[in-house]
Amino acid sequence: MKLPKDMQKYIDLHIHTTASDGTFSPGEIVELALKNSLSAIAITDHDSIMNVAETIKIGKERGLEVISGIEISVDDDEYRFEDVHVLGLFIDIENKYLLDLITIARQAREKQKENTIKKLQGIGYDITFEEVRKRAKGELGRPHIAYVLMQHHPDEFPAMDDVFNKLLGAGKKGYVERGTKTRLKTAIDTIKTAGGIPILCHPGVYTGIDIDFLIQKFAELGGQGIETYYPYSRFKRQKGISSEELENLIEEYRQKGKRYNLIESGGSDFHGTERVDLGEAKVPYSVLEKMKQLKKDGTKSFL
To answer: Per CATH, the architecture of 9-95+183-297 is what?
Structure first.
């Protein structure tokens, strides 16, 4: 039986902190989640688990359920999947294989951002690695570069989406590939080895990729979930779509996930900016209950 909306418990399973390109600390995330009446959250920083343990600790103290997570960036030349993201939920943050992957990804991320900044300087943009590094309290991300560009070139880049659409998105003139890449199977296998559930992030965000093929291959390689609930109307290619169009998009990916027996997930992709609020995706707690059952049973027969 489906509960009325005013009786639903909601969660957010896609949140970034200062460990990557978010602007909120673990304590600030917990307080905002409680303020927004969320029942559970997951911390999913880019290639980092630095703030997971602290957020779980604060969550326990404040009565908020916190799930361990990570968002792994994938570039897989074999399938031509560029800049695809995979969430790992319920991960063991002390798992050796996961920590090894994070170390390699951190080194590649840092070098990629150095080369990106050099490329931007070469095409005439006022930016230095030092000021970008200063903005980041944890892992370097493209949003840190975007913030500096918005500061120095406000007329050209009034919003972050403008920076990504013109310069930093995959295939744009300021984009630089990572030298060391994480393949899709590697991301999936590492998450599962760490006891987690691999979730394909925001399929409606990607451009230049055959999404149906991506979902199919993700499932074939052992992926277990797909992010259906997502505030697409706030981001990139779907920005500005109506609430009805948003619901249709969520349902479309729900059906695609069912085709391959992928469990649902969802979240706001909160970074602490004005683009989206924590909990905005309105993910029902039942989504998390099904994940817990998957963890318990080690099967997807309940779907």
So the answer is: Alpha-Beta Barrel (3.20)
